Amino acid sequence: MAHPHSHDHHHGGHDHPHGHAHGDEHDHDHAGHHAAHDHSHAGHNHLHGVTDQHRIGWAFVVIALFMVVEVVGGLMSGSLALLADAGHMVSDAAALGFSWVAIHYGKRPATAQLSYGYKRLEILAAFVNGCALFVIAAWIVVEAVQRFASPVPVAGKTMMIVAIAGLASNVVAFLILHGGNRENLNVRGAWLHVLGDMLGSVAAIVAAGVILLTGWTPIDPILSIFVAVVILKSAWGIVRSSAHILLEGSPEGTDLAEIKSDLEQNVPQVRNAHHIHAWSITGEQHMVTLHVHPVEGAPHREVVSAVQRRLATRFNIDHVTVQIEEDACMDEHAHEHGGTGSKHCR
């Protein structure tokens, strides 16, 4: 993940002729700051990672087993609502499987080629899962329209039994995932998948009840379209969130103009902040880089520390890289269209 200004990011120490701050003293301090933070959160993040992986693994087993039951039951009963729910469960199983693999490989350490490690696999998995849901929902709608034109007999009793079993499995999977880390996009995506699946099972039960009581089979494709709409809603949320991260978008709730204003108003050592870039590695790990003009006489090391502290406490962003500038911004033209704008460079 390259950023045009990353080569200029050094901190503290003595002054460079161009106003950039260099020196081993703050490099060690900066590294120590992150090491201390990483150490303080390592146990917390590791615990979340392990429990999330276990939850997703068990939910996958439950969903995969009952997915087979629903596919067979849907084919035997002729129910599109059951097949729609089964299609959602196929996506759920794939989502949970991808998520488990992503979390497993995400634990691998960073390398020289992948300096942020494999954590982005979680976001790629979430994006692929969301796209797959769009395809499944489209298939359900097309099949439902065809069934309106050519009604298919439905075995209501078989449909009811299978739908109740599917609902039970979804409730079990939902309870397994409910205590997971909701900030993790994969866990949240899996939880939403299963929640939508529960609604799909309820729809199939309602359809089976109507067919058993009245024999009115059009209720089956009608409620299958309802399931498709539920699927599309969850798919859109997952694709939008994961695509935003893949496109290096600012973390949700992070306003670059607000960061600039907050630093200039609340950090006495900062005269001007500009070229502010914020992005996420995962839904939980956020990064910020920025250029700072310090007030006259402010030690560079002190400026960097103050900016880092402010961003950690006010915006909950702990990985911050600060470039100190005394003269005109060296990257003015390179950043004309980035960050908070080059008009603040001078």
UniProtKB/TrEMBL annotation:
<keyword id="KW-0864">Zinc transport</keyword>
<dbReference type="InterPro" id="IPR002524">
    <property type="entry name" value="Cation_efflux"/>
</dbReference>
<feature type="transmembrane region" description="Helical">
    <location>
        <begin position="82"/>
        <end position="103"/>
    </location>
</feature>
<dbReference type="InterPro" id="IPR036837">
    <property type="entry name" value="Cation_efflux_CTD_sf"/>
</dbReference>
<keyword id="KW-0862">Zinc</keyword>
<feature type="compositionally biased region" description="Basic and acidic residues">
    <location>
        <begin position="14"/>
        <end position="41"/>
    </location>
</feature>
<dbReference type="Pfam" id="PF16916">
    <property type="entry name" value="ZT_dimer"/>
</dbReference>
<feature type="compositionally biased region" description="Basic residues">
    <location>
        <begin position="1"/>
        <end position="13"/>
    </location>
</feature>
<comment type="similarity">
    <text>Belongs to the cation diffusion facilitator (CDF) transporter (TC 2.A.4) family. SLC30A subfamily.</text>
</comment>
<dbReference type="Pfam" id="PF01545">
    <property type="entry name" value="Cation_efflux"/>
</dbReference>
<feature type="transmembrane region" description="Helical">
    <location>
        <begin position="189"/>
        <end position="216"/>
    </location>
</feature>
<protein>
    <submittedName>
        <fullName>Cation diffusion facilitator family transporter</fullName>
    </submittedName>
</protein>
<dbReference type="InterPro" id="IPR027470">
    <property type="entry name" value="Cation_efflux_CTD"/>
</dbReference>
<feature type="transmembrane region" description="Helical">
    <location>
        <begin position="154"/>
        <end position="177"/>
    </location>
</feature>
<keyword id="KW-0812">Transmembrane</keyword>
<feature type="domain" description="Cation efflux protein transmembrane">
    <location>
        <begin position="59"/>
        <end position="247"/>
    </location>
</feature>
<feature type="transmembrane region" description="Helical">
    <location>
        <begin position="222"/>
        <end position="239"/>
    </location>
</feature>
<dbReference type="InterPro" id="IPR027469">
    <property type="entry name" value="Cation_efflux_TMD_sf"/>
</dbReference>
<feature type="transmembrane region" description="Helical">
    <location>
        <begin position="123"/>
        <end position="142"/>
    </location>
</feature>
<dbReference type="InterPro" id="IPR050681">
    <property type="entry name" value="CDF/SLC30A"/>
</dbReference>
<feature type="transmembrane region" description="Helical">
    <location>
        <begin position="56"/>
        <end position="76"/>
    </location>
</feature>
<dbReference type="InterPro" id="IPR058533">
    <property type="entry name" value="Cation_efflux_TM"/>
</dbReference>
<feature type="region of interest" description="Disordered">
    <location>
        <begin position="1"/>
        <end position="47"/>
    </location>
</feature>
<keyword id="KW-0813">Transport</keyword>
<keyword id="KW-1133">Transmembrane helix</keyword>
<keyword id="KW-0472">Membrane</keyword>
<feature type="domain" description="Cation efflux protein cytoplasmic">
    <location>
        <begin position="251"/>
        <end position="326"/>
    </location>
</feature>
<keyword id="KW-0406">Ion transport</keyword>
